[in-house]
Amino acid sequence: MAVRALPVVSQPRIQAWRVARLQISLPLAAIMTLQGVAALSLQNSAFQDEALYLYAGRQIVQQWLGGPKVTEPYGAYFSGMPYVYPIIAGALDMLGGLALVRLFSLACMLVASGMVYLLGRRFFGEDAGLLGAAAFAVEGSVLFLSHFATFDAMCLALLGVAAVLTGPASRSRWPGWALVVGLVSLLAVASKYAGLLFVPTVLALLWLQSQRHHGPRRAAFTCLFAALPLAAAPLAIRGTPMWAGLVTTTAQRTALLIATRSSLLLQCVLQAGALALLGLLGLVLVLRRVHPGSKLISLVLWGTVLLAPAYHVYKMEPTSLQKHLAFGMLFAAPLAGCALAWVSGCVPVRRVAPRWPLGLAVLLILFAAGFRQAQSLFHEWGNTDALIQTLRMQVRPNGGRILAEEDEVPRYYLQDVVSFWQWNHLYWFDYTDASGHYLQGEPAYKAALQAGYWDLVELHYGANASLAHSLDPILRGSGKYQLIAKLPFTSTLGNGYYWVWEKKANLNG
Amino acid sequence: MITLRPRWPAGKERTPHAWSAWHPGRPVWLGRDMAWPAAGLGLAVAALIWLSAADLGAWAALGVLLLGAAFVARSGVERRAATLYLLAGFVTVSAVEYLTWRFAMIDWVAWWIALPLYAAELFGALHIVGLQVTVWPRQGPRLLEVEDPTWRPVFIFIPTVNEGVAVLEATVRGAQAARRRYLRRHRHARVEIVICNDGRVAGAPGWLATERLARRLRVRCITRTEGGGAKAGNIEHARQEVGATGATLLAIFDADQVPEPTFLTETIPPFADPSIGWVQTGQYYRNTENPVARWAGDQQQLFYQVLCPGKAALNSAFICGTNVVLRAAALDEIGGLPRDSVTEDFMASIELHPRWRSVFVSGVLARGLGPMDLRAYFRQQQRWATGTLGVLRSHWRPIILGQRKRGLSLPQRVQYGLACTHYLCGLRDLIYIVAPLAFLITGLPAVRGATLAAFLEHFLPYWLASQLAFWYVARGKSTWRGIVIGFASFPVLLVALATVALGRRGTFTVTPKLRGLNRSISALVPHMIAAAACLAGLGLAASRGLHRAPVTVSALWVAYTLVMLGGVMWLALAAEAPAVVRAWGSAWREAVAAFRPVRKPLPLASLIAVTLLGTACLRLSPNIFATQPLVFVPGRAQGHPQLGISLSNGEPLSRPAQLAQQLGAPFTIVGRTQDLTDRFDTPWATALAAHGGTPWITLLFAPAKGEPLLDSSLPAIGNGLHDAAITRWADEIRNYGRPVYLTVLPHVDRNWSISSAVTNGGIPQDVPRTWEHIQSLFQREGAHNVAWVWAPADPASDEQYAPPSSSINVVLLSLISYPGTHWAKPQPAVAAVLRRHPGKPLLLEVSADGNPAAKAAWLEQVGRTVGQDNGVMGLVYHEGSPADHPSATDNQAWSMASDAAVFRSMRSAVALAGINIGG
What we know:
Strand order of the largest sheet of chain B: 2-12-9-11-7-4-5-6
Radius of gyration of chain B: 42 Å
Oligomer: heterodimer
Distance between the termini of chain B: 118 Å
Helix content of chain A: 55-70%
Largest interface: A-B, 58 and 53 residues
Order of helices and strands of chain A: HHHHHHHHHHHHHHHHHEHEEEHEHEEH
Radius of gyration of chain A: 26 Å
Number of helices of chain A: 21
Structural class of chain B: alpha/beta
Largest sheet of chain A: 5 strands, mixed
């Protein structure tokens, strides 16, 4: 009987493989450690959006667990599906609070960094991948999202995964891979509708790689297959509140805040300019064949960095710009890696990169700027610890109603004591006064204040400053309310106070 | 005329592993290759400026370490080089970052100390970064093999003055051994040994003996008859006498430096490259049984084993005066060794280096005698300091500014700059000693506007980086002894600095090779003064209070200086009284040997692991090792009511013991009021328990200073605002482990209460929720040894406020009888409460101020009531006034001992109550 020998891997080969793995995993671990530690150092109380998504997520999870029905139409104004990220965040929040949800964002962004590495490695080689991941990981926008509990980190990670999956999908003859790319992209878009802007890049990468392996016709078929889930999704949600959310928050968005185009452009340059510039250098290097890589893929990757700025500049919308810039960076970072590899002397491929300190110097400059930016972004909202503490001295379960200028944050922090129905905010309000008149907006607020409708009122003259100011005379002059706290807060956008008023009847006991 | 016979084809390259020399093949800073280094330098500077401007603190260092690690791990460099790269980056960035921050923190008011201190720190940082520049891993040396240097005649010069023939003979014999080995290998070679005898001109008594020694050992002796030029003059005189010029090679050994047999075979080959001007080797001491020599040797090794190879790689290894081989032609070019400097070797190097390259051969190729006592060491250091500082004074322009034509290269200028300024460390050390003392004395800080946290954030990475970087390169080569002895020389370095600054010329003195009696101790007067000042400074710091961060930091600096000074004095003692020190040393070794089993790695690791684990467990869950939780069920003691006392504000804790003694009955319940911010007084409670007492704490949620009154409100407590403090109290009481009565929310039904249900945002419905919230925290912490005492102002009609009956262990009825008021009758009051809270033990607290006779009678009524009703578990007298801030007179008026008659009636009340006075 013939005995078939098993293949034997010689010891030196194993060692060489291990060394190679170590040479990759160590740098990647170091990069991710820096990203993680720097992100974890960003500390502030919950941002308005974070509080909103976490609160909504908890409500939905509790409803699924047999709790009260969610009455708020979150789908109508969320910029992502309420049943994707918010439920993950809500469940995590129930387990470990905001800190755990922010850790989830960190995990997502670490995955995104890993995806940059994999993309860069595939398109431009090992060094470009690693250096691209490093450049991406230290960007201000990326560090900010790494500790920010909103849709963005998850969407970004999924887009990265989809982009990386275009590799096996393009090589495989089995169309299932393309479907996986489409489903992951769909999940990314469901996480955050703005992810839709970057799906064409994923499909373009799939097409460009597929046509290299199987020709243009087959590539078109693969892309079509990948696009199937994305095409089917609108049909599924059309007519639901989520469709309205998709349209109002993303597709036909009306800018919440208006900024001049030049100021938005400047912001883009300041926050993503360095990486975009490095990416452009990488593109030039590839186009001039100094660095190996596909010209078309490079063009697609670099072009993607322009999408978010173009959208925001066109809409004149500054909201979320700093977060959306990170999406473009995900695709442009491998090209920045090419540039860094060239600066460091890794190109042409050498065993020892002779000019590595140069590359390190560039990365340090990026890190210093990025970390400062992230710190600045993370303090764009005032810390609410003192406000929450003051409100906590006043509220009781099923007690009186509370008017908070932006109620998301106090509502989130006080959810163990205060019920959903107790909260009102300055976005919209309707009220029927004692004479039976139905009022809306400012008159409604004024009438309710005159009637002592709220036990507590919190104003900080932020996004709804004009309305808040219009309520001042009643708070001060009606004799119904008494100022019990004026709590200072600072943010990178300016300083201010939280003014907390209490209905006088309460004080008299 | 000497004929040279080239043996190897011109241009052949060798890379001897033991040699370090500048690679002449492709000058990096020249030509087309200039672009990348220039870009690199520019980027590095930009990165440093950017990082400093961003004020990232420790983040900058972390960024360098992690991103650097990523790069280095990928770049394929070997581990040692990679570590050096990382450490260099770490040091540079953290140093720049720290100094930038420090500059902003300079206290310009106290500029007279702030600026020197900053300058000293800047100087220190420059040398720390300079060390990184020196040891930065560089490409190995490449030498051309153009000719065979063994055809060149070699002269071995041994200059001597007064070292004595015993010392000299060993050196000559060593030189002969080296010559034999060399000639055996190169039979055509010529080596002549010459003793350069300067004893006659120096007036040394043994100069004739030197000549006799030369004759005996059959070596040549050149005795000078006319002085001048010190060692350089001696060598130059001999050089001319024997013709050691032109194509010859000249090896120089100090009289005590005994060459190894391999010296010539190792040092001559590099001269195959005609650009090599000299080959330097290290100095190592062979008399390391002497403590001073051993410590000085440690310092020397740092220079010869760490710095010199690095300097050689930058073509900056300078001549160190001994154990060196020089190309005579190079010396001829500059007119021989300079005779106007006490460090002729250093001066000659600066003049030679623009045209000649140098090689440093590592390894021990000669061994000499180190200084035998501190005075000799100080003399040596002073001479070297005077010489190099003198060179700085005379040659600062070519070193710092450079020369346009045929000057030193930039790396050479950096290295010479570092070497020249090294001896300014004496001034630096003086400033380091004086600055913290100046702050402690005057109170004027050199640093202003910095918090301790900010200081640590910027200083710690820098300190950590510099320590790591230093000890990484010094490990196995130098020890802390080198640092201490280097610090010891600060007074003589100051003298040298003053000598040079005043333009005086130092004199060349040979380092004594014999030990003098009591020399070290007398040389330590400056150190003793410094130590005394440090001790006084520490005393001053202690008197000012070490809780202030600047004082603590200054005191730590002073303590560090004191440790260094202590090290110096120990060395002096070891040098002067070796027997005593040996005895101490052996005792120490025995003590260490006793722990040898523990020093084995595995048990030690286990010990550390268990300790860490244990500590972590204790920190995470302090009740892991607690005894079984005690569940406290309050009630009467063996059927008898208990007697208690509660103290008003201002009453001393010793008061119950005094009164119990007078009363003849012990208090088994002792109450006091505490704020939430206080700690549970475990020692007090333990002392009480030792005498059979149980503590009763009334816990108030009084607002901390600056906090709003609302902080104490019932919603605030119920909503968890004070959970951390309540949990701490629960932990402390649980850890106490014995019964405790606890009252929270006292008089919650009245508006005078801090946490009131009728004012300050509180409503009656808040009380049960708040009460149960506090209890739940105690339950969670396992504090079951608490009896909860419900203490409203009116427990007979507290329906609106009371928490669930199941959550109440004891009900308190306080009958506080004010003067001029109608005093409550005890019996009906007790009955009403017992009706309202059936089955609950009642604690009756009483106190009165008024007519003594009425008070006495009332107290007896109280006693009778307690005695009659089994529902009353105890009688507690509230000792002192119930007012918030009572005077001593008030307290006396309210006391149970306010009057003799009152006190007697208190005794009667105790008896009537049936209280067991047997304890």
